[in-house]
Structure formats: structure tokens, C-alpha cells
Amino acid sequence: MGLSDKNRRKTGALARGFGALTCATIMTLPVMAQNHPAQGVMDADRAFAARAKQVGPGPAFAEYAEPRVLMLNDPVPGTDAGDLAKLFGPGLEIDWGPVDGAISADGTLGYTWGKARYFRQKPDGTREELPPSRYVTIWRKQTDGSWKFLADGGLHAPEAKEFAERKKAEKPQ
Question: Which single residue of 7, 82, 98, 104 could bond 112 by disulfide (Cβ 3.0 to 4.6 Å)?
């Protein structure tokens, strides 16, 4: 059974409308992403990660830090930015990126959180991947419009399957 001319026209119009809507939606996705309320702080986090790949984690942390910061994984409360390079051993690489973030109503404070992967150069020259982590970074907007972090930390993030298996094993029978 074929479609009548009337139904064929309706179907064609519907398909054209759907196609136009799909194209319009796809074309606006980058614009929508650029209009994320925390776009500026997420861009700062991405630039921070890129800088760490260029110069290493320690120098990048020192560059993107306020003069004194709180490293959430460090038992000492407060670290001078200049001392951050000492927290990262030689041969350590960190690859990270924000998943989401938010900023305060006045736009002066923000946070990002994301996932990180760690790699270490072993003495024999091979590259070893360490367990992944999740991190959170607290940022403050500077008078020049840039962002500097004032607190940062992460924790081991086992893969979902490992996490589920561990939780199942921990349940009392």
C-alpha cells in the first residue's frame, strides 16, 4: 500500500521540518556549550591541564595557584605557590579535564571537578599508568579576569566495575 499524495506531502513536510530542527539543534550545541555559566572557570581548568603537559605538573600548579593554597591531599594546611613544584616527583605526568563546574552568583568564586589520569616514568624508561582519580578545584577570579586556584585535591577513582565488585563484597550476607 502506497501513500496518497496528501500523506506523502505531509510526510515530506514532517521530514523537512525534523531535518531543519535537527540541523538547528546540532549547530547550536557549540554555542550552548560556550554559554555554560561556568565556562570561564572550566576554560581555566583546561588551560591549566594543557600547561601541565607543557611544563610538568609542579610548575603548572605554581603558575595557576594563588600565593597560598590549600592542597586537600596534603596534611599541612596551606602551601605557598612556590613550593608546589616540590609536591610532584620527577617523571610524573597528569592528564586531566573538567567534567563540570559552577560559579558563585557574583562570579568571583567557582569550582571545577573532573577526572585525572596519572603516568610515571619508571627508572627503566617505561611509562606506567597509575590509578585514575577524580578531582575538585576551587577557583577565585583575579582582578585581571583570569582565574587562579585556591584549593585543589583528588581521590582515587576506581573504575565502575571494580567499585561495584568491591561494594558487593563488602555487603554482609
Answer: 98
